[in-house]
Each structure stands twice: as structure tokens, then as C-alpha cells.
Amino acid sequence: MTKNEWMDVARTVIASRFIDTIEETELVPAGKVTYQFSAKGHELAQAILGQALRQGHDCATVYYRSRPLVLAAGMTYEEAFAGPLALSGSRSGGRDIGVVHHLPNTRGVTVLPASGDVGAQYTP
Hints:
It contains four helices and two strands. With about 120 residues, it is mainly alpha-helical. Helix 1 packs across helix 2 and helix 2 runs parallel beside helix 3 (about 65-75).
């Protein structure tokens, strides 16, 4: 990986951790987020994988702790916050629990609609 790609990975890891921290310390206590599933400890591997996937060629299935991968695949920070807040600007239009990500391949890699079930990312 190039230096710039490593910088992108670092930005993704830091952004994911920051979003988790804001949700845990501000949004959940305020009752604005009902479900918070931290990706802490999972960020680096997911950010690297997301960086390695190629638009138009690769797609991924994810689970509820996959925010770093989805961020690396092209989800914006606004979309990352909008999902758990159940806002209309989220990928689901505010209709899911906010952590079952999906990402059509408009800006990056396709992330297939996910289930909230444990192990669902392994379902064929």
C-alpha cells in the first residue's frame, strides 16, 4: 500500500472510533440512538479490507459492527451518523436500526444489504 492509502486507512480508523465515541458518550445517553454496536478493536482490519476492495469489481457482505469497512467502501460520515439516528438521510431512509449497513455502488464498492443477525455476513 502507498503512503496515501495508509493515510486513508488511518482516517477511516480514527473516524470510526470517533463516531463510536460520540454515539456512546452523547447520543445513547441522550436517547437519540437506541442501538450502539461499537466496532472498537475491529477497525484496522476492516479499514484495510475496505481499502483493498475495488469499485465495479468487488462487493462485500457485512454485519452490525462493520462500520469501518463500510466507511472505507465509500459511506460518508453524514450517512454513518444518520443511520443510528434513524434520519431520512441514512441509506435505509431511517427504516432500520442504523447498523445494518448497505451501500449501492454509486461511489465505491457495493455493500450488500445486511442483516442484524450474528454471523449473517457468512450467509451465502
